Amino acid sequence: MTIVPIVVAAPLLTAALIALAGKWLPHVVADAAGLAVTGLSLALASVLLARTSARLITYWFGGWRPRAGSFPVGIGWAVDRLGAGFALLVTCLLFAALAYSWRTMTEEHYLFVALLIVFGAAMAGFVLSGDIFNMFVFFELMSVAAFVLTAYQAEEASPLQGAFNFAVSNTLGAFLVLTGIALLYGRTGRLNLAAIGQTLTNQGRHDGLVAAAFALITCGFLVKAALVPFHFWLADAHATAPAPVCVLFSGVMVEVGIFAVARIYWTVFDGVLGEFQSPIRDVLLGVGVVTAVLGAVMAGAQRHLKRLLAYSTIAHAGCFMIGVALLTPDALGGVAAYIVAHAFAKGALFLCGGVLLTRFGEVDELLLHGSGRALPVSAIAWFAGALALASPPFLGTFTGHALIDDTASTMGYWWVPVVLAFATIGSTAAIVRAGLRVYAGAGDPDDPLLADEPGEAPPPQERASLGLMQAIALVLALAGLGVGAWTGLATRAVEAAYTFTDRISYAAVVLDHRALPPPPPETWHTTAASVAWAVVTLVGSAAVGAASVYRNRFPEPLTRALGAALAPLHAVHSGNIGDYVAWLVLGTGIVGGLLAVSVHGVL
Amino acid sequence: MTILPYLLAVWIFLVGLVGIVTSRNLIHLTVCVSICQSATYILLLAIGYKSHGTAPVFADIPTSRKVVDPVVQSLTLTDIVVAVAVSALLLALALKVFEAEGSLDPAEIAELKG
Fold it and tell me: Looking at residue A458, what DSSP letter applies?
């Protein structure tokens, strides 16, 4: 009896039952059922994580195991350590989101619970799957659930606009992925990741078709990962979705896109495109750098707290991409540790935003100036979350940053730590600035550099418990800080990344049922450079954040120049779906074109 | 096997994209998304096509008979199911937008900016 499919099947089944019977049940039953099944998934994902320490667990639906060397007919899952860890992270955040929304929504609350569970289960299924079309189906399932969750407060115009932009952008991204899948199937006749990779490598042809498939699948997943210029939907969706939904959006959904790019590259394309690693690395690094810088700059110019956090997520997504783009197990392990710390910290910050919205009916930094003094627990959670994201020495995102920085420096990319530090300082300073204004009443309630933003209607709340909501935010923030202190997490992530990036062993386990060779044992090395960068980002975030609350008192020529520099960026984020799709097409042309050209060896 | 179906798939995808980018009506935009998705059906079916192959249903034909690839057909069916869900959702959102704003023009309802 294997537990692998139950992690996903049990929540999907429970969600269906809640949706069917919820109308006739008291709210508390739907909440309790949701929490119970998520707790079960959480426990099972933990067991999977423990069991994958030295092996890859395969599961074939209906028992359709492939015989060695023959055509793999069945749909298979292949659970490795990074996949199991990701599924565990998803269930942890889902549990927090469900606990936070305990008895909060009055209308049709059971449907909200059911949708959240489907959303989480689809993400878990996506990261556990070893079949490219199965991944596509889970990708669409998670997307559709996410679109509905964004528009959950459907009486207002802005959630509808956010959901519409989100839905159209991500659906087009999914079409790009599907087109790439179709091309791969046409070439190899396989849908299993390991089998496609093996066939492509044996054929050894890296022609236009393989290049196009790689470019299309990568660009399609970059839409979900919210990298420039595919990122426009993210801020709109995050600004309008309910806070507990944002926890999952920022904490894991965007990262699913990053995970997908890494998974597909290493299982499918690493063999056939291995000799073009260097140009592929440069293209992906470029995308990551532009995203990290743009997200940090835009976060500094937002007064809507959830939109500010959304741009901070874009900055961090750029940093994740930089780590993946280095295409080494060490950096990938760093990204995994970074994602865990970021997910908890950013989740805490979004929940603090949700508490403000519930208490004051407002998430505008300037209008809330000083009001947060009434919520001391939220204030602690907010600043603990900000501290975790500032990458202070041995806390929060530090281990992830250190691994990426050290790997990049060793490879000669000396500027990667600079970009990571810029993105971290820019995005965290914005969080510190907003926190100082809202929770401490510091500085001026006026800022010449902030965008105009319409207010957000408060969610209908009747029996919401602010105490419980704040406690969950605080727990998440402390978890985000704490995982950075546990350097064992980072070393285990690197070991897991060695297995993740070992295409040949992956294929041998999945297709020929061989045993997995143990990864090289890792130990944690702290370098002076990484601690120095951590001090820089910590001090920089605090100093820039504290100075930003007095931007009203900056010399006027300076603020006018900065405002003029920001104006085109604001104009580009127009909120119009037609513009977003035009950017998506342009981005696919540029990124896809560069990837395709680099595979042909012209660059 | 001719290259024509592949060119047709690319053409339909591009037509759909142009429609989305220039659309001034959310329902029109939803139809354009469906048009883009139709391109993926054609691509999938073209990949599985075999000349002189028949439908892969072996109830009344010998198993030795040449048939088109059934895998891409089931992928297309799955794809259609996804399309139904997405279209239904987009149309429901468009309806809600009209109820809230009295307009279906994406440029007029754009409240989120910057």
Answer: P
In Å, what is the CA distance from A99 to each residue of A113, A298, B113? Answer: 10, 31, 32
User: Cα distance from B2 to chain A (closest Cα, Å)?
Assistant: 14
B30 falls within a domain: yes
Contact (Cβ atoms closer than 8 angstroms) between residue B97 and residue A157 = yes
Residues of B in Cβ contact (< 8 Å) with A240: 112
Q: What is d(CA B10, CA A212) in angstroms, rounded to the nearest whole number?
A: 13
Neighbours of A364 (CB within 10 A): 19
* C-alpha closest to that of B84 among B33, B23, B28, B22: B33
Structure tokens at A399: 């281990």
Instruction: With H, G, I as helix, E, B as strand and everything else as coil, classify residue A273.
Output: coil
CA distance B72 to B41: 9
Calpha distance A200→A211 (Å, rounded): 12
Helix (H) or strand (E) holding A76: strand A76-79
Is the four-CA dihedral B24, B25, B30, B36 of positive or negative sign? negative
The alpha-carbon gap from B63 to the nearest alpha carbon of chain A, in Å, equals 18
Residue A488: pLDDT band by 50, 70, 90 thresholds?
A: confident
Give the global pTM. Answer: 0.95
ipTM of the complex model = 0.95
* Percent of chain A whose pLDDT exceeds 90: 65
Nearest to B23 among A158, A570, A578 (CB): A578
Strands (E), chain B: none
Cβ pair A526, A435 in contact under 8 A: no
Overall domain count for chain B? 1
- CA–CA separation, A565 vs B42, rounded Å? 45
How far is A503 from A198, CA to CA, in rounded Å? 9
In which domain, by residue range, is B70 found? Answer: 25-51+66-106
A78 bridge partner residues: A58
High-pLDDT (> 70) share of chain A, %: 95
Query: How confident is residue A108, by pLDDT bands cut at 50, 70 and 90?
Result: confident
H/E segment holding residue A31: helix A27-51
* Tens-place pLDDT, residues B8-45: 999 999 999 999 999 999 999 999 999 999 999 999 99
Q: Which amino acid is at A592?
A: G
Residues facing B67 on adjacent strands: B54
- Rounded-to-integer distance, Cα A8 and Cα A13, Å: 9
Q: In this structure, is residue B1 part of a structural domain?
A: no
Residue B93 counted as domain residue: yes
CA A524 centroid distance within chain = 25
The answer to whether position B18 is within a domain reads no
Concatenate the DSSP letters of all residues of A145-178 into one string.
HHHHHHTSSTTSHHHHHHHHHHHHHHHHHHHHHH
| Beta partners for residue A58, in sequence order | A78
For A258-303, strand residue ranges (E) read none
CB within 8 Å: B97 and A147: no
Contact A454 B17 (CB under 8 A): no
Q: Which amino acid is at A513?
A: H
Tell me the two tokens of residue A185: 């199937």
Which pLDDT belongs to residue A603? 42
Residue B114 has pLDDT above 70, yes or no: no
Shortest distance between the Cα of B88 and any Cα of chain A, in A, equals 11
Nearest CB to B43 within list A174, A179, A576: A179
User: Which tokens belong to B13?
Assistant: 């995808």
d(CA A181, CA A260): 13
